[in-house]
């Protein structure tokens, strides 16, 4: 059977530093998989290898039946099916919200102006920022900017959405709006791979949780198992640092990142 995402024996080294040491997992169509783990464990590197922003040292990445690590693959075409949302929103500051959501549609998908605008407005509506179409990113809150970034990714009709700590740069009161948009996407059946410290979100929305430490997957399974009844000491130790026990299972939001994982530390 074929998976939406299939990662096999993935290794990534930077010089002599081996960051990913043999990662194997799959994501099925319509599933949400949350990746959790301490700072430096390789979570961002893993996501960047999934869309080949980083070239894996060894192993295969297959998305929608297309092996991206095949040297003969049309990588630009394959990447078009992947939406990526980063911790920092990476909007073009000199373009309006609407232009930000239209530009890649126009340049990459070669959509006409009217169609690109229609798709942009539809997606901005979906994430709740349609009223901001003519504003510039600097005029928006962080949560609104992140929702524009999500709309921009969705406008490309991705078959898979990758999120790398999409809420960790946000003020706490803005986190919920972004998580609500992500939850709605998941409910719509979007296949999602999400690096997050939001344990409430992982617990409620994820089909599976993958706990990484030191470049390997220590354990994975349903959220109730990995977050609720972790088997490994490393998982328990990580969770005790990020979880406020009083908030387990209570809505989205939850505790922020621990103090040794300051926003902006990732590339
Ligand atoms: N381009 C790079 N060149 C050299 N080393 C890198 C590069 N990118 C990442 N690393 C190293 O790889 C390791 C894993 O980094 P990565 O960003 O994947 O961790 P992470 O799990 O996402 O951490 P965080 O929770 O802080 O975002 C770190 O030791 C980091 O310094
Ligand atoms: Mg990271």
UniProtKB/TrEMBL annotation:
PANTHER family: AMINO ACID IMPORT ATP-BINDING PROTEIN, GLUTAMATE_ASPARTATE IMPORT ATP-BINDING PROTEIN GLTL. Residues 5-239 form the ABC transporter domain. Its main location: membrane. It is a peripheral membrane protein. It comes from Sphaerisporangium aureirubrum. Residues 244-267 are annotated as: Disordered. This is Amino acid ABC transporter ATP-binding protein. Keywords: Amino-acid transport, ATP-binding, Cell membrane, Membrane, Nucleotide-binding, Transport. Pfam families: ABC_tran (PF00005). GO terms for molecular function: ATP binding. Belongs to the ABC transporter superfamily. It is found in: Cell membrane.
């Amino acid at each position: 059977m074929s998976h939406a995402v299939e990662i096999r024996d993935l290794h990534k080294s930077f010089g002599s530093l081996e960051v990913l040491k043999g990662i194997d997992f799959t994501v099925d169509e319509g599933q949400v998989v949350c990746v959790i783990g301490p700072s430096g464990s390789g979570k961002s590197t893993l996501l960047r290898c999934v869309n080949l922003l980083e070239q894996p040292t060894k192993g295969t990445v297959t998305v929608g039946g297309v092996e991206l690590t095949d040297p003969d693959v049309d990588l630009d075409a394959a990447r078009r099916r992947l939406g990526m949302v980063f911790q920092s929103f990476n909007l073009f500051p000199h373009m309006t919200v609407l232009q930000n959501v239209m530009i890649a549609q126009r340049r990459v998908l070669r959509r006409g102006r009217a169609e690109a605008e229609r798709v942009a407005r539809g997606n901005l509506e979906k994430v709740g920022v349609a009223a901001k179409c003519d504003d510039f990113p600097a005029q928006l809150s962080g949560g609104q900017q992140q929702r524009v970034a999500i709309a921009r990714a969705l406008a490309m009709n991705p078959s898979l959405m990758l999120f790398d700590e999409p809420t960790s740069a946000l003020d706490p009161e803005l986190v919920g709006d972004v998580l609500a948009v992500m939850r709605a996407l998941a409910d719509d059946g979007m296949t999602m791979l999400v690096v997050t410290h939001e344990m409430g979100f992982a617990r409620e929305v994820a089909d599976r949780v993958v706990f990484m430490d030191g470049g390997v997957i220590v354990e994975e399974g349903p959220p109730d198992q990995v977050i609720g009844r972790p088997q490994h000491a490393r998982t328990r130790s990580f969770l005790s640092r990020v979880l406020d026990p009083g908030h387990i299972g209570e809505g989205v939001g939850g505790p922020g990142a621990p103090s040794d994982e300051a926003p902006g530390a990732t590339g």
